[in-house]
Amino acid sequence: MNESLHRLGEYTLLMAKAISIPNRWSMFFKQLIKEIYKLGADSLWIVIIISIFIGTVIAIQISLNISSPLIPKFTIGYTTREIILLEFSSSIMCLILAGKVGSNIASEIGTMRVTEQIDAMEIMGVNSANFLILPKMLGLMIFIPVLVIFSMFTGILGGIAASYADINGMTPASFEYGMQFYFNSYYIGYSVIKSVVYAFIISSIASYFGYNVKGGALEVGKASTNAVVMSSIMILLADVVLTHLMLT
Amino acid sequence: MIEIKYLSKSFEGRTVLNNISATFETGKTNLIIGRSGSGKTVLLKNIIGLLRPDKGEILYDGRNLTGMKKHELDVLRREMGMLFQGSALFDSMTVLENVMFPLDMFSADTYKEREKRAMFCLERVNLLEAEHLYPSEISGGMMKRAAIARAIALNPKYLFCDEPNSGLDPKTALLIDDLIHGLTKDYKMTTIVNTHDMNSVMNIGESIIFIKEGILEWRGNKNEIITSNNQALNDFIFASRKR
Q1: CA-CA distance, B197 to B38, in Å (whole number)?
Q2: Min distance B102 CA to chain A CA atoms (Å)
Q3: Is residue B86 part of a domain?
Q4: How far is CA B124 from the centre of its chain?
Q5: Is the same domain home to B7 and B60?
Q6: Do residues B50 and B34 both lie within one domain?
Q7: A112/A188 Cα distance (integer angstroms)
Q8: Which chain B residue shows the shortest CA-CA distance from A30?
Q9: Which of B50, B74, B89 sits opposite A119 (nearest CB)?
Q10: pLDDT band per the 50, 70, 90 thresholds, residue A3
C-alpha cells in the first residue's frame, strides 16, 4: 500500500513538472511534430492491418454463430458495426497501442535516463520532464482520434469484405442494411473521447516508468514491461468508468 | 571560484561524503581524484546541484547553491557546462543539433547566429567533419569532443567533467585533457575534473584534491603529488607498483 501511494505521489509530481509552460515554444512545437509522426503516424499501418482482419473475423464469427432463422441476417452487419464502433476501435486498439507506443516511450526515456541524457538536460537548466514528456502526451492525444477513425473505417471494410464470402447466408446487401440500421453517431464521439483518455494513460504511465528508471539496460526492459502492464490495466479500468459515465 | 564548505552526504545511513571543504579556483583545471567508490561522483553531483547535500554550503562566486530557489538555480545552470562520463549526447540529434540544443533553448540569437556559434564550438574541438553525423556514427573520442563543444556552447563560467578519459585510448585521452585545459585557460572558466587517471593528474592537475572513503585526505598540485608522504595518496598513486 505504501509503495503504491509512493508511486502515485511520484507520478503526480512528474505530471505537474511535465505539464507546464515550455522553455521555448519553437522547440516544443518541433518536438510535438516529431512525436505525432513517431508515435501516431508510424502506428497507422498496424492499426489498419489489425482492424481489417479483426473486422473480417468478427463478421465471419457472428454469421457462423447466428443459426436461428428467427434472427434476421442484417444482424451480422449491425453487430459487427456496434462491436467495432463501441469497443474494438477505441479500447482494444488502445490496448494494442499500449504495447507498441507505451514500450517505445518507456524504453526511449529510460535509455535517456541511464545514459545521463536527462541529467545533461537538467544541468543545462532545461525542464527535462516538460521537454520530453509533454510533446509525447499531446502528440498521442492529438493523433489517436485519427487512428481510431481509421480503425473504424478499415474494420468495417473488413466486415464488408467478409460479407462477399457468402458464409451462412450473409450477403453484402444484408450486411450493408445492418450497418445502417439504428445508427447512432454519438458512438463515434464516445469512442474518440475514450481514446483521448487512453492516450493520456498510455503516454503518461509509460513516461513515468521510463523517467524513473534506475540502473541499466535490464531495468529499462523491466520499466518497459511494467509500463505496458500498468497502462493496460488502467485502460480497462477507465473503460468501465467511461462507459458507465457516457452510456448509462 | 567555487567553494564547498563542510559538505556531507549520506545514502540510507551510509556516509558517502564527510565534512568536505575545498576551493576550486577560476582559470585553473581543478581535479578531484580518488579510487572508484570514494565519493568523487557524488561530490560532483552535489556541486552541480543534481544531488542535495545533507549539510554544508556550495558557493559559486559567493552565491550559495544549496539555498537557491528553482528559478535562481536555473539561471546558475546556464552558466554551467558539463561533460558526462558517457558523453550523454542526445541520440536522436546530430552532432550539430546536440551543440545547438542549449543555444536553441536559451539563446535569443537568430538561427543563423546560433548555427554560427555551434560551428565555432565544433571547430574549437576540431570536429567540423562530424556535424551531420549521429552519436551512434562517431567514435568515443569524437563523442567526448562533441560533448565538450555542447558544454561550451553557452560560454559557461563553470565547466565540470566526470571521468572525461574513461574508455579512451591514451593518445585520445591526452587530446581530451589538453582540450579541457586549453578551454579553461582561453575562457577563464572554473573547471572541475573528476578522474582517477594518473596521466591526467600529471598532465593537467593544477589544483588537486584527493578523496578517500568520503573524506578529503590531501590537497595540492601535480608537482606536490609525487613528493607527498600521505600514505593513502601514495597507495592510490602507486597501486600498480605495489601489486
Answers
A1: 14
A2: 7
A3: no
A4: 18
A5: yes
A6: yes
A7: 38
A8: B104
A9: B50
A10: confident
Instruction: Answer whether residue B241 shows pLDDT above 70.
Output: no
CA-CA distance, A138 to A140, in Å (whole number)? 5
Please name the member of A24, A27, A119 whose beta carbon is closest to the beta carbon of B88. A119
A1 pLDDT above the threshold of 80: no
Query: Are B67 and B122 found together in one domain?
Result: no
User: Last residue of some domain: B99, B125, B155?
Assistant: B155
Contact B104 A125 (CB under 8 A): no
Same-domain pairing of B7 and B52: yes
Q: Quote the CA–CA distance of B195 and B161 in Å, as a whole number.
A: 9
* The three grid cell numbers given for residue B1, joined into one nine-digit string: 571560484
| Inter-chain residue contact A26 with B80, CB threshold 8 Å | no
Express each pLDDT in B35-70 by its tens digit.
Answer: 888 888 899 999 998 889 999 999 999 999 988 888
Are residues B60 and B175 located together in one domain of the fold? yes
Q: How far is CA A121 from the centre of its chain?
A: 29
Mean pLDDT, residues B127-144: 91
Answer whether A27 sits within 8 Å of B89, measured CB to CB: no
Q: Domain end: B155, B188, B211, which one? A: B155
**Which of A115, A121, A132 is the best mutation test for B, with the most CBs of B within 10 A?**
A115
The answer, for B85 touching chain A at a CB cutoff of 8 Å, is yes
CA gap B232, B16 in Å, rounded = 17
- B170 and B234: one domain? yes
Task: Give a yes or no: residue B84 inside a domain.
Answer: no
Instruction: Give the global pTM.
Output: 0.87
pLDDT digits (tens, 9 = 90+) for A44-94: 999 999 999 999 999 999 998 887 888 888 999 999 999 999 999 999 999
The domain limits of chain A are 24-247
Judge whether B89 is closer than 8 Å to chain A, CB to CB. yes
Q: How many domains does chain B have?
A: 2
Whether residues B73 and A26 touch (CB distance < 8 A) is answered with no
**B146, B171: one domain:** no
Please judge whether A124 and B77 are an interchain contact, meaning their C-beta atoms are less than 8 angstroms apart.
yes
The predicted structure's pLDDT at residue B200: 83
> How far is Cα of residue B27 from the mean position of the Cα atoms in its chain?
14
Task: Calculate mean pLDDT across residues A223-231.
Answer: 95
Note down the domain range covering B233.
2-79+160-242
Q: Are residues B70 and B167 in the same domain?
A: yes
Q: Which residues of A touch B88 (CB under 8 A)?
A: 115-117, 119-120
Q: Is the dihedral angle over the CA atoms B128, A111, B65, B114 positive or is it negative? A: positive
DSSP state of A126: -
Predicted local confidence at residue B136, as pLDDT: 93
